[in-house]
Amino acid sequence: MPYQGLIHRYGPYLNLPAHTQIVSLLEGNTPLVPLPGLARELNCELFVKFEGLNPTGSFKDRGMTAAISEALGRRVKTVICASTGNTAASAAAYAARAGLRCIVLIPEGKVATGKLAGAIAYGAEVIQIQGSFDDALTLVVEITQKTPIALVNSINPYRIEGQKTSPFEICDEFGSAPDWLCLPVGNAGNITSYWAGFKQYQKGLPRILGVQAEGAAPLVLGRPVEKPETIATAIRIGKPARGEQALEAAHESNGKIIAVSDAQILDAQRILASEGLWVEPASAAGLAGLIAETGSDRIEAKGRRVVIVCTGHGMKDPSIITESFEIPQVIPADYQTLFDMIGG
How much is the pTM? Predict the structure, then answer.
């Protein structure tokens, strides 16, 4: 039978109301890509759950299929979200599929062009606010409490229901949970959903390493960050909506949440690219954290199975590459010139 999307595949495991009308772009079913080079270096089994291969290029599609399906089922006409980019593109695409109006609030000048372009292409009404993502989230929560507009940020419980399907897929492929799961932490919905999924599926529990950027690390600092700053735009969040659940997930799994520098994130992005995977900077945070922890012997990965969750494709946030890119040399359209240049 052809693949029909996450709700069809895992419906019995998802706590969705009876009125739900499925809206799918055939999300999920993303690969676990081995990293043989780095695995040899770390002496472990190492895989990337590459969520950048979802329809809009990020893991957000898993939760959005559930959130939009529920909203459509109760005859909502308009959905809204605050976003640093990936949620915006996903909400816009699924709303378009469902025939719903989509409004997106973004922090002024703080969203990667590739993500903003997606939201616009799918027909969302994009509004910039003079403030942070956290300010935008406060606004959308307030307006959805006072109007019939549906909120589709990760504080929507159906988003978590959809996102917890990724651990189901990991367990289905391996037959059990990995020893370690490493992933970036921004608004903390993803780490919360992964832990919920592993617990529900009952095929073992990994230890979880959640990774924030040093300039946006409220869970590591133990306090909100009023003006978060990092090149990893997807996790540039100072007040995670599900921060408490994220801390609980790390604690219950006997794992941890740490912070890494932007330089470490960019190094990890380059390492992933060297193995053929181009991810947006925030997606490389999980690997950056793993390298930092194994290098300082705070995590024993030797002989273990480790899964790194890469949440978004590199095309989502290409500016860090394009801004440092040297213009290719121009040569005549001549065989001998080319031969001399590349050395035969």
Answer: 0.92
